[in-house]
User: Which sequence fits this backbone?
């Protein structure tokens, strides 16, 4: 891939805040690394940690799939449909971003819980109860993470040139065909970036998960829950768990970045 | 800008002056005045807020400030040098964490005991009759995680009763367990008796015989580095007094 080199000196007004920003984000991470009891690392890694890590990765990935399935069409609706009141809808979509996750978990319980508005019928008609199940973890994570995907995809859609879609339409393509063959490929980088954000948010989710899905090893105990409970008795173990989660997530994201998001940089 | 910074400076000076004039006569003559900062377990929120108001009324010129939280989190904060005058813990283990770091000189004293209670949603829809029902996989059960004091106490109770519980969730603190009960998400849970009382009519309680055998001791102690040692000691004495015991007893604590 060819890269165009930016010529001239780097402006100080940008470099200084950028370096401070980088330090602000990385120094806490360095603090965690410094405090990590590397020597006792292996003894603190138990089978339960492996299980929590597996559960975290599986649930975050399933939540991302769910978000893609529902979120991309939602983003399209907000960006392209000409629906009245879209601005208001867009604001509503971001509610899970500002809602404290624990409150989100309570809201999910009130709707999907055993006595919730919808959950009551799910339980009575189909015998489905989401709280305290792995499916509940996926639902909680998707609830919190979906706005990241929707906003990212919607931004990409609004930045994309609608003339290609109009051209496709004048050539006789249906809206569905246009969406699949023209719109989606043109905003793919935005979809991938949104999915990555969504996955990362889902992986770190704590509040909504523990409130809605509870905490039971092998069933609903994801890494953030394990970290929180380890902190109660053994801060060293909590640090080790955090490091494991960090390394795995950074590894996955860096791997994905090289593979998928190889735009000009 | 300059007006507000001047205001900050003046109020800071006032605060400093207040502290100075408060501290000095206190150490000289033994009168109780000034600020006292209390780190207390979350389960003490209602009772200690009440006791703080009573203490301020009994000692004009004092102000009690609270930091409520999980006992283990508070112990960690104190270990990291958080400024406090008094520590009241929900478990002796967390008090020991603090005494081990020499931040306490006086021996901690037990001021209250809490016992566990079975909490069920209103009307007891899961028909929980006692601890034995906690071993039934068909019922939804919430317990505290073993890492927190109420979870450790729960384990002791089940060992005494010879029941192997089949919980669906192990919550991070007792208030989270209570939320699951009051929302009707679980059929039964073990919480503290004081939590059932504090929840009002939203949850019901089922008696069980082993509860008296697994009690949680709440220790309290003034901290060695207290900035207001006289008031710290006075507050501890107040909690242990007849007046303090009455408030704690009314909230459902056993008082020694």
Assistant:
């Amino acid at each position: 891939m060819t890269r165009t080199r930016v010529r001239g000196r780097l402006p100080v007004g940008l470099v200084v805040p950028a370096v401070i920003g980088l330090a602000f984000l990385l120094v806490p991470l360095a603090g965690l690394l410094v405090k990590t009891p590397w020597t006792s690392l292996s003894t603190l890694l138990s089978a339960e940690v492996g299980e929590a890590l597996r559960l975290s990765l599986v649930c975050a990935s399933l939540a991302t799939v769910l978000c893609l399935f529902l979120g991309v069409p939602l983003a399209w609706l907000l960006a392209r449909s000409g629906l009245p009141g879209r601005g208001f809808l867009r604001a509503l979509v971001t509610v899970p971003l500002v809602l404290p996750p624990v409150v989100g978990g309570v809201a999910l319980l009130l709707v999907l819980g055993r006595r919730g508005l919808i959950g009551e019928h799910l339980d009575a008609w189909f015998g489905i109860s989401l709280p305290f199940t792995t499916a509940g973890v996926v639902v909680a994570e998707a609830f919190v993470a979906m706005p990241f995907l929707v906003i990212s995809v919607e931004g990409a859609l609004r930045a994309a040139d609608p003339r290609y879609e109009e051209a496709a339409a004048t050539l006789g393509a249906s809206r569905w065909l246009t969406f699949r063959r023209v719109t989606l490929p043109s905003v793919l980088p935005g979809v991938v970036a949104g999915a990555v954000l969504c996955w990362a948010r889902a992986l770190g989710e704590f509040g909504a998960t523990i409130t809605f899905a509870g905490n039971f090893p092998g069933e609903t105990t994801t890494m953030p829950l394990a970290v929180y409970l380890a902190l109660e008795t053994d801060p060293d173990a909590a640090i080790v768990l955090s490091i494991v989660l960090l390394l795995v997530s950074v590894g996955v994201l860096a791997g994905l970045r090289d593979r998928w998001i190889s735009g000009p940089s | 800008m300059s007006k507000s910074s001047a205001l900050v400076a003046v109020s800071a000076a006032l605060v400093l002056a207040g502290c100075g004039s408060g501290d000095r006569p206190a150490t000289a003559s033994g009168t109780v005045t000034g600020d006292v900062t209390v780190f207390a377990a979350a389960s003490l929120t209602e009772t200690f807020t009440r006791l703080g108001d009573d203490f301020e009324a009994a000692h004009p010129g004092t102000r009690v400030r609270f930091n409520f939280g999980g006992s283990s989190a508070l112990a960690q904060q104190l270990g990291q040098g958080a400024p406090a005058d008094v520590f009241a813990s929900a478990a002796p283990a967390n008090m020991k964490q603090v005494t081990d770091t020499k931040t306490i000189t006086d021996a901690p004293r037990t001021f209250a005991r809490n016992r566990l209670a079975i909490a069920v949603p209103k009307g007891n829809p899961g028909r929980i009759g006692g601890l034995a029902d906690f071993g039934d996989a068909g019922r939804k059960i919430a317990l505290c995680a073993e890492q927190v004091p109420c979870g450790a106490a729960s384990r002791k109770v089940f060992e005494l009763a010879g029941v192997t519980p089949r919980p669906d969730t192990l919550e991070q603190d007792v208030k989270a367990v209570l939320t699951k009960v009051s929302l009707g998400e679980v059929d039964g849970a073990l919480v503290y008796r004081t939590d059932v009382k504090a929840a009002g009519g939203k949850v019901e309680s089922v008696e069980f015989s082993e509860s008296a055998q697994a009690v949680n001791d709440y220790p309290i102690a003034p901290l060695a580095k207290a900035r207001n040692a006289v008031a710290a000691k006075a507050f501890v004495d107040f909690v242990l007094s007849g007046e303090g015991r009455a408030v704690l007893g009314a909230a459902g604590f056993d008082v020694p």
